[in-house]
Amino acid sequence: xxxxxxxxxxxxxxxxxxxxxxxxxxxxxxxxxxxxxxxxxxxxxxxxxxxxxxxxxxxxxxxxxxxxxxxxxxxxxxxxxxxxxxxxxxxxxxxxxxxxxxxxxxxxxxxxxxxxxxxxxxxxxxxxxxxxxxxxxxxxxxx
Length: 143
Hints:
Blueprint: H1 3-15, H2 21-33, H3 36-49, H4 56-67, H5 73-84, H6 93-104, H7 107-120, H8 126-142
Helix pairs in contact: 1-2, 2-3, 2-4, 3-4, 4-5, 4-6, 5-6, 6-7, 6-8, 7-8
């Protein structure tokens, strides 16, 4: 992770801006998507510093970071935490979960997410359709 992101984080703490949801969310997103294997623990530390209530953007940033990391199961764990804390996923949440299920080669999880996408009415979203097609192809290859 770049020195600039760490300096920005320190400045946000010093100024008290770490509690601004938009600013903190952008920081979490930037850290989560930079050199994933090294920064996820740091990202989680920043995530835990943000005062409740969080917002879906911040949750999605964390889920996305883990979905694209060597630890995709943590994306699913965060999704379940998000639900248990009363947050409602949006159309950006599900492509990251589909990515995680593909990384995990977990067909049951992929089908569960697909069912949730249909029930929530997100089936017409282009990004979701592309991820579902990728998931389906990988599942067929395993059979």
